[in-house]
Amino acid sequence: MPCNCCEITDHAFSESEARAEVRNYRKRGPANQTKLILEAIRSLGLKDAALLDVGGGIGTIYHELLEDVAREAMHVDASSAYLKIATEEAKRRGHSERVKFIHADFTEVAADLPQVDVVTLDRVVCCYPDYRSLLKAAANKTRRAVALTYPREIWYMRIALHVVNFFQRLMNDPFRVFLHPVQGMESLLNNEGLKRVSTRRLFVWEMALYQR
Ligand SMILES: C[S@@+](CC[C@H](N)C(=O)[O-])C[C@H]1O[C@@H](n2cnc3c(N)ncnc32)[C@H](O)[C@@H]1O
User: Fold this and answer.
1) Top mutation candidate among 124, 148, 179 for ligand 1, by most atoms within 8 Å of CB
2) What is the pLDDT of residues 40-99, one digit of tens each?
3) 3-state SS of the chain: helix, strand, coil percent to 5?
4) Other C-beta atoms within 10 Å of 2: how many?
5) Is 124 in the pocket of ligand 1 (CB under 6 A)?
6) Could you tell me which residues come within 8 angstroms of residue 140 by beta carbon, excluding any fewer than 6 positions away?
7) What phi and psi, each to the nearest 5 degrees, are found at residue 155?
8) Which contacts of 14-23 are long-range, i.e. CB under 8 A and separated by 24 or more positions?
9) Cβ of 56 less than 6 Å from ligand 1
10) From ligand 1's centre to the CA of 176, what distance in Å?
11) How far is the CA of 173 from the centre of ligand 1 (A)?
12) Are 62 and 73 within 8 A, CB to CB?
């Protein structure tokens, strides 16, 4: 069955939201759950790494890691609004030549992309219905590690996501958020040869770092 999730996701994120996020990032630095990903990757002690940021939004992860850890980055995103703002921010920071921007559903283009050292998915699995395809593709692209954040599988997050989806339905907006099973994601990544080496939790988000 053809999937239109990329189109739906593209419409879900507006340019004004992306602009507000980048203003916030310039003022306050990375969001708390993104800081966990950055710390996890820095703990690997990599230098000159190649990075793939799936659903990178305004590009915070590589804007930060191109300073010390990464030599180059790829940003694959279903949202054209986010990609536009991320491109502008990369130019502003003087590293746009080291970033490749791809507007696509990652699961559809992953086979054509080169392998990298680290793949990141910050708050991305919860925007995509088929976590299996997404994480399998991410695992196949990494030589060293995958770091991701997702909503905690806990009662209040179940309620919160139900409420969000209730209002989405009410507004006739087909975009949905997903609370995927942590054990399911874990088994899949384990089967792809990746082992969880670190877990950090905030009130809403959980961060997991997997290494080969
Ligand atoms: C909630 S935003 C998170 C953005 C950024 N990572 C952050 O944490 O600020 C989710 C992002 O994932 C992207 N996304 C979701 N599913 C995707 C897919 N299958 N392929 C590429 N991008 C995807 C969306 O377009 C959006 O940019």
Assistant:
1) 124
2) 999 999 999 999 999 999 999 999 999 999 999 999 999 999 999 999 999 999 999 999
3) 50, 25, 30
4) 3
5) yes
6) 110, 192
7) -55, -45
8) 14/81, 15/81, 15/84, 15/85, 17/81, 18/57, 18/58, 18/79, 18/81, 18/82, 18/84, 18/85, 18/86, 19/85, 21/57, 21/58, 21/85, 22/58, 22/85, 22/88, 22/89
9) yes
10) 13
11) 17
12) yes
Note the helical H segments in 29-170: 32-42, 60-65, 80-92, 106-109, 131-141, 155-170
Cα(125) to ligand 1 centroid in Å equals: 8
pLDDT higher than threshold 80 for residue 26: yes
Q: What percent of the chain has a predicted confidence (pLDDT) above 90? A: 93
Query: How remote is the CA of residue 50 from the centroid of ligand 1, in Å?
Result: 19
So what's the pLDDT on residue 77? 97
- Distance between Cα 147 and ligand 1 center (Å): 14
Identify the residue whose C-alpha is closest to ligand 1 atom 4. Answer: 57
What's the rounded Cα separation, in Å, for the pair 124 and 9?
11
Q: Which residue's alpha carbon is nearest to atom 11 within ligand 1?
A: 55
Spatial neighbors of 37 by CB under 8 A, at least 6 apart, are: 61, 120, 122, 147, 148, 149, 207
pTM above 0.85, yes or no: yes
